[in-house]
């Protein structure tokens, strides 16, 4: 893709702070540095989001996540946790439309980062949960 900032980074047309590279992925520091070491891992093949991945590419890309995670853990021994986030489509906060995985080191509860998971358990009966699961199971992709 000619106008993709991540494709340009992968092709060395735009500078980056490279962390890891092999024939399938390129990992580099996110310029926002939500926390120290915040890294993006991107497939070298342009795919917009998780919905465009072929199974083989998904396996190759996601297999690299632990490699970079372990490097972060060794580089920052004070790290107490790690968030791994993959946003897909604009409503889910994807801002660059070349699939990428955020690895965000966590050092303290007061880091400038948060995720909120609402608990809507009381809004769904067991029957409704069974129907939701059935609706997903019935799709051709599974």
From TrEMBL:
One of its GO terms (molecular function) is catalytic activity. One of its GO terms (biological process) is nucleotide metabolic process. Residues 5-115 form the HIT domain. The active site is at residue 100. It holds the Pfam family HIT. InterPro entries: HINT, Histidine_triad_CS, Histidine_triad_HIT, HIT-like, HIT-like_sf. A motif (Histidine triad motif) lies at residues 98-102. This is Histidine triad protein. It comes from Enterococcus termitis. The lineage of its organism: Bacteria, Bacillati, Bacillota, Bacilli, Lactobacillales.
